[in-house]
Amino acid sequence: MSVRIDKWLWSVRIFKTRSKASEACKAGQVTLGGKKIKASYILHGGELLGVKKNGFNFTFKVLSIIDKRVGAPIAQTCYEDITPKDELLKFESWFAASKARPEFREKGLGRPTKKDRRNLDEFKLD
User: Fold this and answer.
1) Does residue 11 contact residue 75 with C-beta atoms inside 8 Å?
2) Measured between alpha carbons, how far is 111 from 14 in angstroms, rounded to an integer?
3) φ, ψ for residue 105 (rounded to 5)?
4) Other CB atoms closer than 10 Å to residue 93's CB: what's the count?
5) Stated pTM of the model
6) d(CA 45, CA 34)
7) Half-sphere CA count of 49, side-chain side, radius 13 A
8) What's the pLDDT tens digit per position in 42-94?
9) 3-class DSSP assignment, residue 35
10) What are the distances in angstroms from CA 49 to CA 18, 62, 86, 104, 117?
11) Would you identify the CATH topology of the domain 3-99?
């Protein structure tokens, strides 16, 4: 069986829509062996794909080829995530930070001043 790379990326749920997968290929965010590939590339099993998504570099090994979108448990059996640990830690720390509570300001204090905002920004960077 053969399938286009954009269709496979969509069917295994790496991208939410097929058009986003095609756009990523056109933008050079999908690589095969370090070379940018077109959305029409015919994918084969055992190939290593590099996908840049939301500023993170993921690496996947193709285990099986599917051409229809399937449920997440089935989709995860079609590839192996071999992303380096340092990149995964970067992703997990970003994901955990987005789930944290936002800053809290006591009611009645009004908007933060420029100095307050700078102090908050400095605190977040540490």
Assistant:
1) yes
2) 40
3) -130, 135
4) 10
5) 0.72
6) 17
7) 31
8) 999 899 999 998 888 999 999 999 989 999 999 999 999 999 888 888 877 77
9) strand
10) 17, 8, 18, 42, 42
11) 3.10.290
